[in-house]
Sequence to fold (119 residues):
Amino acid sequence: MPTRPSAIEEPGAGHPFPPDLHDARHLWLKAGLLLAWAAVSFGACYFARDLQFMVVGGWPLGYWIASQGAVLVFIGIVAIYCAAMNHFERQDANAAAGADTPPSTPDAPGPGAPGKPHG
Fold:
């Protein structure tokens, strides 16, 4: 009978999402973007009638929010999320590369260098 993998395994063991994906900075990012999404989705629609006095391009501001503004904000939220996650992944990769690299010694061959000196 095959054994089932345990819930806690080594990172990079074939899991699509490592356990550290939900650390504090990721959760704060998600919370902030969800708050912006809720403000645009519900707040702007709720106050659309109050925004009718502002005119942009000959049309009331409520029209612009309903037709284009909310969609543009949602695209902006996705772009911000992608850029922030890319930044976090680079930070994690740099931290992992710094932790995994042993201190170099002058007589030790570098990575990828053959073990024997040429001569």
Notes: Helices lie at 24-46, 61-100. The chain has a mean pLDDT of 74. The beta strands are 55-56, 59-60. The two ends are 56 Å apart (CA to CA).
